[in-house]
């Protein structure tokens, strides 16, 4: 083979390797949004926050309405209007569930009906998000139930999303958001229970802290995982781990 041809062959191999490496790197950075995250985006898309307030927290006045404000998605008012997932679906599709169709609480702002407007796939994502925000997800494992309460009281859901089902944006992080506990990202960040414990205790893990690329993003990301080693007891950590396993379908219900 001539020297010139050898050079171009080697150059082509190197160039192909570089391109493949770049493509692989960017494919790893592609977001893997959870159903709850997608549901939040759909809630924004269809104007749900316009009437129910940011993140469904309420505080939107509704003149002549019996309860003064459009109902928030949390608290006693939400529980009064929505008893189960079927009613939640009826509210979205028909503007009111069958149980309340003959009851009028007044108000100039009325719940719109999205039947024929929202596709079934988007509706399902929206319901996942709303069930999480409204606290309609039943935890049928005793240790997991305690862990959920501890995680909530420790501020975990502020970053990792309601029920830990999809986190908030995080500038300069590897994928641009804080991962949820139920998604694909979890397996990339947590290889086993010892790493999960390390994340909770130290706010980081050695495997990524010492990785030449991962450590750059960990250092640059705006929101960093706090360390709970001085906050949580060993029993509390065990319950949180039980909850995360339950959320991921890795423990039996009881």
TrEMBL record:
Record key words, sorted: Heme, Iron, Membrane, Metal-binding, Transmembrane, Transmembrane helix
Alphabetical list of Pfam families matching this protein: Cytochrom_C (PF00034)
Example GO molecular function: electron transfer activity
Record keyword Transmembrane present: yes
Entries under SUPFAM superfamilies matching the protein: Cytochrome c
InterPro entries according to UniProt: Cyt_c-like_dom, Cyt_c-like_dom_sf
TM stretches of this protein: 6-28
Signal peptide: none
Protein name (database record): Cytochrome C oxidase, cbb3-type, subunit III
Provenance organism: Candidatus Chryseopegocella kryptomonas
